[in-house]
C-alpha cells in the first residue's frame, strides 16, 4: 500500500508539472491572439490602453474598417483564392499520385524524384520567372494570376502518394476485374477510401493559401483585393491605425478558426497519418 | 453469357527480371471444369492466375477463351470474375453495394441490380448483413461477400486465389463443401489456386501441379495421387508424404525385384533386364507389417503418432526414414524391429537423375515417361 502511494505521488507531481508547463506555453501562444481581439474591441481613444480587459466595449474599430474598405469583398476574394487553389492542388496531386502509385511506366522513379525535387526549389527562385510569365500573359493584378502558379504542389503529390502506397493493390485489381476502367476506379474506389486524407490535405492547403501575403502582394501590386493586403491600408508612414487594423486582422482569422474548430479531428488525423505529427 | 468458356494457355511464360515465375505452361481448361492449380509457396500459382485474369501481361505465350485470342484484352473485356486471397472488399461500401459493384460498373438498371444482389445474398446467406460495412464482418462472412461479388456477374469463368486460406479449419471445411456445391449447381468453369492438398483432392475435377513455374503433372486427383509423375508429385500429395528410398532393380529367378541393403521387394514383373538404380516410392498407408522372415523393408520404429482414428509409425531403415500409416492401434512400439511389405501395384519407381516416373514396357528396359 505504502509503496503504491509513493509511486502514485511521484507520478502525480510529475503530471502536475507537465500540465503546468503546457498551460504556460498555451497561454503564451494564445495571448497575442487574445490581445488582437481585445484591441479591436476597445473604444478608439483606448487603443493604447494596457488594461487586460477591453472596457468599455466598442465596435467603432469594426465600423471604421468596414467604412474605409470593402472588407466583405476582400474576404470573398480571399475565400475564392483559397478554395480554388486548394481544389486545384488536390486534383493535380491526386492524379499525379495515382499515376505514380498504380502504374508502371518508364522513368517513373526519375519523374517522381524530379516532381518532389521541385519542392526543394525555394519560392524566391521561382517568383521572378513566374512574375515575368504572368506579366506576359497579362494576368498581373488579377486573382487568376494569384491562383494559377500555386495550382501544382509537390507536397500534395508526396503526401497523397504515401497514402496510396499503403493502399491495398488488390483493391485496384478487384475494381479492374469488376469492369472499372482505371479512371473510374480512381473515382469509385480510391477517392472514397482516401476521403479523410483528401479532406485534411485540402484544409491545410486552403489555410496556407488564405494566409499567403507575399505572392498576392507581388501579383496584385497596389490593389487590395485580398484581405491580407487590405491590412496594408491601415499602416501608414505617419503612424498605424491600430483599431481598424486589428478589427480586420481579427476578421481574417475567423474563417481559419471556424474551419479548424469544425474539422479539428480531420486536421489532426491528417498530420498523424502523413507521419508529420 | 459466354457459352464457350474453354480456356487455353499456350506456352504462358512470365519473367520478373531474372526470376522465371511461370515457365512455358500449356493447359486446356474445359468448359465446366474445376481446375485446381496446386503447388508450394512461390511456385507461380498466383502469377499464372493473374495472367489468366489479365492483370499481368505474359512475357511469352498466348491465352484463348473459346475461339478468341484474349492475350491482349484488358480484364474488363474478359468476362472472368476473381476472388482474391485478401477478399479485396471495398472498405467504404456496404455489403449490398460491394456485391452490386460489378453490375453498377456495367450500368445495369437499378431495379435489376437490387434484384440480383438480393438473389445472390439469399444463396450465400448474407441477407441479414447487407447493410454492414466489410470491417463489421467476420472472416467467413467477408469470404462469402467476395464470393457473392463474383457470383452476381454470371461470368464465363471464376478465378479464385486461395480464397479459404484466411479461414480457420472448421470454417474452411464448410466453405470447401459450399464452393464445390456451387460449382456443381452452376456448372461454371473454375480455376482455383491453393497450396492445400486437401482442397485440391476434394474439390478438383483436375489438378495442375506446379513446381518452380513448370507444370509438373496434370490429371484427376486420383491420377495424380495414384500415379504421381515424379518424385516431386509423389511427395507433395499425401500425408505423411510418400516414402522414397534408394534401391536397385535386379532380376532374380526371372522376375524383377527392388533391392537395397535393407530392402527386398518383388515388383511382380516376370522379365529380365540389366540392373538399374532407381528411387522406390511407397505410400505410408500401403505398407503392412509382415511376419518376421518375409522379404520386405527392414526398419526400426522410432516413434508412434496418434491421429485419432489412425496411427503413424515413424521408422528408420538404414539411413532412410519410412512412415507407416494404418488403423489404430498399429500394435508397434518404439524401438521395435519390423519388416514392412507392400503389394507390387503400390510400388512406384522413379528415375534417379530426373525424378520422373518409370513404367514397365514389355520388351524394353524401363523408360522414363
Ligand atoms: N511483381 C513481382 N516482381 C518480382 N517477382 C515476383 C513478382 N510477383 C511474383 N514474383 C516472384 O514470382 C514467383 C512466383 O510468385 P507467385 O506469387 O506466383 O507464387 P505463388 O505460387 O502464388 O505463392 P504463394 O502460395 O506464396 O502465394 C516468386 O518467386 C515471386 O517472388
Ligand atoms: Mg499466391
Automatic annotation (TrEMBL), chain A:
InterPro entries: MetI-like (IPR000515), MetI-like_sf (IPR035906). Its main location: membrane. Residues 75-263 form the ABC transmembrane type-1 domain. It is found in: Cell membrane. The keyword Glycosyltransferase does not apply. It is a multi-pass membrane protein. One of its GO terms (biological process) is transmembrane transport. It comes from the Bacteria. GO terms for cellular component: plasma membrane. Belongs to the binding-protein-dependent transport system permease family. This is Carbohydrate ABC transporter permease. It comes from Prauserella cavernicola. The lineage of its organism: Bacteria, Bacillati, Actinomycetota, Actinomycetes, Pseudonocardiales.
Amino acid at each position: 500500500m505504502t509503496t503504491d502511494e509513493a509511486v502514485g505521488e511521484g507520478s502525480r507531481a510529475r503530471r502536475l508539472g507537465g500540465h503546468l508547463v503546457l498551460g504556460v506555453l498555451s497561454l503564451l501562444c494564445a495571448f497575442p491572439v487574445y490581445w488582437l481581439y481585445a484591441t479591436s474591441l476597445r473604444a478608439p481613444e483606448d487603443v493604447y490602453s494596457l488594461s487586460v480587459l477591453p472596457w468599455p466595449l466598442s465596435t467603432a474599430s469594426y465600423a471604421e474598417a468596414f467604412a474605409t474598405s470593402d472588407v466583405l469583398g476582400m474576404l470573398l476574394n480571399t475565400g475564392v483564392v483559397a478554395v480554388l487553389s486548394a481544389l486545384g492542388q488536390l486534383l493535380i496531386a491526386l492524379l499525379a499520385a495515382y499515376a505514380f502509385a498504380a502504374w508502371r511506366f518508364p522513368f517513373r522513379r526519375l519523374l517522381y524524384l524530379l516532381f518532389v525535387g521541385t519542392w526543394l526549389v525555394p519560392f524566391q527562385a521561382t517568383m521572378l520567372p513566374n512574375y515575368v510569365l504572368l506579366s506576359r500573359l497579362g494576368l498581373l493584378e488579377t486573382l487568376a494570376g494569384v491562383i494559377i502558379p500555386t495550382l501544382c504542389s509537390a507536397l500534395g503529390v508526396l503526401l497523397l502518394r504515401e497514402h496510396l502506397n499503403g493502399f491495398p493493390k488488390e483493391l485496384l485489381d478487384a475494381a479492374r476485374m469488376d469492369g472499372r476502367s482505371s479512371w473510374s476506379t480512381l473515382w469509385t474506389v480510391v477517392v472514397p477510401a482516401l476521403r479523410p486524407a483528401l479532406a485534411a490535405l485540402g484544409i491545410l492547403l486552403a489555410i496556407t493559401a488564405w494566409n499567403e501575403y507575399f505572392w498576392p502582394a507581388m501579383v496584385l501590386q497596389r490593389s487590395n483585393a485580398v484581405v491580407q493586403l487590405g491590412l496594408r491600408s491601415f499602416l501608414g508612414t505617419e503612424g498605424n491605425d491600430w483599431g481598424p487594423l486589428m478589427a480586420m486582422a481579427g476578421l481574417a482569422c475567423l474563417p481559419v478558426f471556424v474551419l479548424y474548430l469544425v474539422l479539428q479531428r480531420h486536421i489532426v488525423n491528417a498530420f498523424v497519418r502523413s507521419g508529420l505529427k | 453469357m459466354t457459352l464457350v468458356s474453354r480456356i487455353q494457355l499456350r506456352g504462358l511464360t512470365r519473367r520478373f527480371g531474372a526470376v522465371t515465375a511461370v515457365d512455358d505452361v500449356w493447359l486446356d481448361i474445359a468448359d465446366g471444369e474445376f481446375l485446381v492449380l496446386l503447388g508450394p509457396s512461390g511456385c507461380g500459382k498466383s502469377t499464372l492466375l493473374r495472367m489468366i485474369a489479365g492483370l499481368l501481361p505474359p512475357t511469352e505465350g498466348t491465352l484463348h477463351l473459346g475461339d478468341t485470342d484474349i492475350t491482349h484484352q484488358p480484364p474488363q473485356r474478359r468476362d472472368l470474375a476473381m476472388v482474391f486471397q485478401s477478399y479485396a472488399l471495398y472498405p467504404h461500401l456496404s455489403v449490398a453495394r460491394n456485391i452490386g459493384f460489378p453490375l453498377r460498373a456495367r450500368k445495369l438498371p437499378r431495379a435489376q441490380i437490387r434484384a440480383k444482389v438480393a438473389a445472390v445474398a439469399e444463396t450465400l446467406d448474407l441477407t441479414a448483413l447487407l447493410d454492414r460495412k466489410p470491417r463489421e464482418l467476420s472472416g467467413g462472412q467477408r469470404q462469402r461477400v467476395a464470393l457473392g461479388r463474383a457470383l452476381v456477374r454470371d461470368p464465363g469463368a471464376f478465378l479464385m486465389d486461395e480464397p479459404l486460406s484466411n479461414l480457420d479449419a472448421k470454417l474452411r471445411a464448410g466453405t470447401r463443401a459450399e464452393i464445390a456445391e456451387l460449382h456443381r449447381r452452376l456448372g461454371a468453369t473454375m480455376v482455383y489456386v491453393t497450396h492445400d492438398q486437401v482442397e485440391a483432392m476434394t474439390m478438383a475435377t483436375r489438378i495442375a501441379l506446379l513446381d518452380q513455374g513448370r507444370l509438373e503433372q496434370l490429371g484427376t486427383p486420383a491420377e495424380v495421387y495414384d500415379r504421381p509423375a515424379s518424385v516431386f508429385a509423389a511427395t507433395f500429395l499425401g500425408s505423411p508424404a510418400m516414402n522414397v528410398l534408394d534401391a536397385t532393380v535386379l532380376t532374380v529367378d526371372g522376375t524383377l525385384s527392388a533391392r537395397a541393403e535393407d530392402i527386398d521387394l518383388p515388383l511382380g514383373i516376370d522379365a529380365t533386364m540389366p540392373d538399374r538404380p532407381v528411387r522406390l516410392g511407397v505410400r505410408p498407408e500401403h505398407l503392412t507389417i509382415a511376419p518376421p522372415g518375409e522379404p520386405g523393408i527392414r526398419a526400426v520404429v522410432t516413434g508412434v503418432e496418434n491421429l485419432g482414428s489412425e496411427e503413424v509409425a515413424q521408422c528408420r531403415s538404414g539411413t532412410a526414414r519410412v512412415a507407416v500409416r494404418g488403423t489404430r492401434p498399429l500394435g508397434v512400439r518404439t524401438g521395435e524391429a519390423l519388416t514392412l511389405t507392400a503389394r507390387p501395384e503400390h510400388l512406384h519407381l522413379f528415375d534417379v537423375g530426373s525424378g520422373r516416373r518409370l513404367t514397365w514396357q514389355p520388351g524394353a528396359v524401363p523408360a522414363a515417361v
